Amino acid sequence: MDAEIEQDDTSRPTPASSAWRTRIREALGALSGPEPWKRGPILTALAVALGLFMMLHAQIPNWLGNVGSLVETILPWFGVFVPLLLAAAVWRRSASAVAALLLPVVVWLGLFAGQLTDKSHAGGDLTLVSHNVGADNPDPAKTARDLIASGANVLALEELTPQAVPTYEKELAKAYPYHSVQGTVGLWSKLPLSDAKAFDIKMDYGPLAATKPFDLKMEDNRALRAVAATPHGPLVVYVAHLASVRWNPRGGFVTAQRDRGVDALGRAVAAEQNQHVVLLGDLNGTTNDRAFNSLTSQLRSTQDAAGDGFGFTWPKAFPMVRIDQILVKGVKPKSSWVLPGTGSDHRPVAAGIAW
User: Fold this and answer.
1) Which residue has the higher pLDDT, 179 or 205?
2) Global pTM?
3) Where is the Endonuclease/exonuclease/phosphatase domain (predicted)?
4) Fewer Cβ neighbours under 10 Å: the N or C end of the chain?
């Protein structure tokens, strides 16, 4: 009998568990009833507006300072507002705001959930690497050695200066017996190259030329086209460094020069007779930006198809956007990743492809 009484005593709630149950009941009570649904109308409106803003981003017009392209460039970062609004809603004890946040969460996941998973696969016939090496790179020789270590079969470099080109040619010569430099872009390859020539992307910087980190003239080449001989047949390779974009209080998001380059590349890809095409380079824009439709309608981003995460590349210290791209047509992306930083302000990008 005593044992039974003792067992009954131990089955009673302890003071600690009783306190937790009391807190849970209080929390549920705080969210029950009509009052919490009336709190935080501004937070609720902001949550709904955020969801609609992301959902309808394609409808944001570009006629006013290219704001539509600007929003699409940084679109993934609008998800940061969700935890901020959630914290405010919990502090305010607003059930309506918490419920309204389901809209931006669902929209954001619908847009970007696919980039949160690792889509890479083992294998591949070729490894491609692209890197804006930076005109102010203090150690081009080390950058070249780092890129050799990537194991790339085909290596594209952008923002080459006349002073740095001999260094890259010397350091890369043994690993890459074939190469072509056209203006400020270059292509190094373990595979034979043919028909390498500059490709006109209609650059005309005008007054912006004075803001560039090295002497940039209107006639400087910023893109090239070559054909690599692979065991599976010819592979057309474009290397491009499109014009930088600027934010101007008067003109907004200034992208006209870049967009002309995008259109020139889009027309060239459309005219290609060869089915196997890759585009490597610093495109100064993300593939979310509608301005790239002429390219993304024909070419696949290796990062989107076979990458892990967003693959942000710039700025090197804290990458926030992916403006360095590897786009392909007629070949299968097997993997895509971002390489460790070098002396440049960009991080290199790599991809494995297969036929």
Assistant:
1) 179
2) 0.85
3) 130-346
4) N
